[in-house]
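hi support,

uploading two proteins for the ticket. first:
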Amino acid sequence: MSQPVLQSKSLKRKSSNSEFMRSVLKNKALYLMILPGFLYFVIFKYIPMGGLVIAFQNYKPYEGILGSEWVGFAHFERLFTDPMFFTILSNTLILFFMNILIYFPVPIILALMLNELRHQFFKRFIQTLVYVPHFMSWVIIVSISFVLLSMDRGLINELFVMMGFEKVNFLMSSEWFRPMYILQVIWREAGWGTIIYLAAMAAIDPQLYEASRMDGAGRFRQIWHITLPSIRSVIVVLLLLKIGDVLELGFEHIFLLLNAMNREVGEIFDTFVYTAGLEQGQFSYSAAVGFFKSLVGLILVMTANYLAKKFGEEGIY
């Protein structure tokens, strides 16, 4: 390559670097706002990825990563041949699809209902009421559920007795584990999930609604033909992000609900990793399970994003 061409590329590189620095200095307040979130992902998400190497080792803490024996895919073979694997996988997938089919539409419906309220004080009161559970930990949510559903003087069972029905052992029943789980998810997260949808609805041009009213469209037709199409891209992006958590249902919530009577339908990868990794000290095996979860989530997000773009949606990248 000739000297003038090299000099030209070097000048372009320097020019782009100087432009970037000028942009940073000009928007330093914005970059400072981004910095905490950026550091969070670097420190707690990207740097720990280096520890995934122990999934291919027989890791021993006193020998460290460099001194531990390399075993290749032995832990993955053990995972896929474990008799519990398909039980855990099916439990995780069932709860995930319950989240997608039952929980995911609830914030959309709730946001549509809130958007139709015209009395501002009443609207803000309802919004606050449905947001509050999000700020309570899963420990509080599950504890309240235990008080309500307990066999011993639980409010729900006391009402059943008053109406002439028998008591139901919700907390120790494998049949009630999944309904109880999804209802708690809706109770805690549905209100908080409406925030993005309400923000998207606020950006819709009011003239569209005025024109539709002049054409004789009622509120349901306005919702169907204006509101939902206008927030469709937001729904698609949030759905894609939700698909990435296909095997990541949250450890704390499930762990608090688990007991000996419902473990068969409630054991998921998150609780399995806790049992194998922390209680039994099988660090490499639990790392292999976590690696498998992350890989499945990555493949599903990329596939769903590709399909979304094929159908004309924006996607997440």
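and the second one:
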Amino acid sequence: MILIRVLIIAICSLYIIRSLVRIFLPMLFKSVINKAQEQARQQQQQYYQQQQPRPDGRIRVDYKPEGKKSSVPDSEGEFVDYEEIK
């Protein structure tokens, strides 16, 4: 008799838990998705607020690396060998 009672309670508990999961799990997923969308929207707004409009025809350099000086002066340029074909 005790075994039947335990089985009935276990089956009823599992059925109730299954029903609750079917109801609350979609709500949980929906809230998680909404939070992720809101965070993405906020990041996008922050990105566009950081971007400053530039006047047309102007170039802005954010970083200029300090490079090594070349052994060839700028006035000489680059020389390319070629042969004339007749």
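thanks. also noticed: The chain is about 55% helix and 0% strand.
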